[in-house]
Design a protein that fits this description.
Helix content is 57%, strand content 0%. The chain is mainly alpha-helical and 160 residues long.
């Protein structure tokens, strides 16, 4: 595998920096992959250098911090790790979302079909002049008279 595909402009240049670039890259690995574990460990080490919770990246408080302070670095690392974690489980979340959507659409489709079938049976019941096969067969079997010759399947019960 080669290096991840990247766009040539810096990150954060508006919506054109799309998720598709990240999805094509090798960054969405299983949460237990060694690369993910190493990334999270590195992030934890940098964030733990900050004595207090870091400010949210990009806020006025963050902008007022001097360059290179542990809090400013931790804030950037937290933002980057949040983005990376979002991508770590993106395929599974999308698959789950699509499955849920398919189930909901199928349930709605089934309910609509059942409603239409019930309406059809109700609307056409008065035109029913032919006895259904299953009902006729049950009636004929109940009315049938047992004949000993029929038991062995030979006409007239003739011996073999």
């Amino acid at each position: 595998m080669g290096p991840p595909e990247r766009e040539s402009r810096p990150v954060g240049n508006g919506p054109a920096q799309s998720i598709s670039t990240a999805i094509k890259s090798e960054t969405n690995l299983a949460p237990s992959a060694p690369e993910v574990t190493a990334r999270r460990s590195w992030s934890y080490r940098l964030v733990s250098r900050c004595a207090t919770p870091p400010p949210i990246f990009g806020t006025r408080e963050w902008l007022e911090l001097p360059e290179g302070t542990p809090a400013k670095i931790a804030s950037v690392v937290v933002a980057a790790e949040s983005w990376a974690r979002e991508l770590d489980d993106l395929p599974e979340r999308l698959e789950h979302e699509l499955d849920e959507r398919r189930r909901a659409e199928k349930a709605a489709e089934d309910a609509e079909y059942q409603a239409r079938a019930a309406a059809h049976r109700r609307d056409w019941r008065h035109l029913r002049v032919v006895e259904p096969y299953a009902d006729r067969r049950d009636r004929e079997l109940a009315e049938a008279i047992y004949r000993p010759a029929d038991a062995d399947g030979r006409p007239g019960g003739e011996p073999a």
